[in-house]
Amino acid sequence: MKRLIYILLAALLAVTVVSLIFWLITGEINVVASILGAIVVVLLSIKASKDKNF
User: The whole model's pTM is what?
Assistant: First the structure.
């Protein structure tokens, strides 16, 4: 359960950061890029948590 909370927080942070970066670069919110960025971070955090037995 603790791992799930960390993964959800990482996904939320990723969406926020990617949205902010795209907004600063293009001036518009790119939802697709934000979601893809969040998926990548979630997959990486799952892999990291499996490696470290989080």
Answer: 0.50
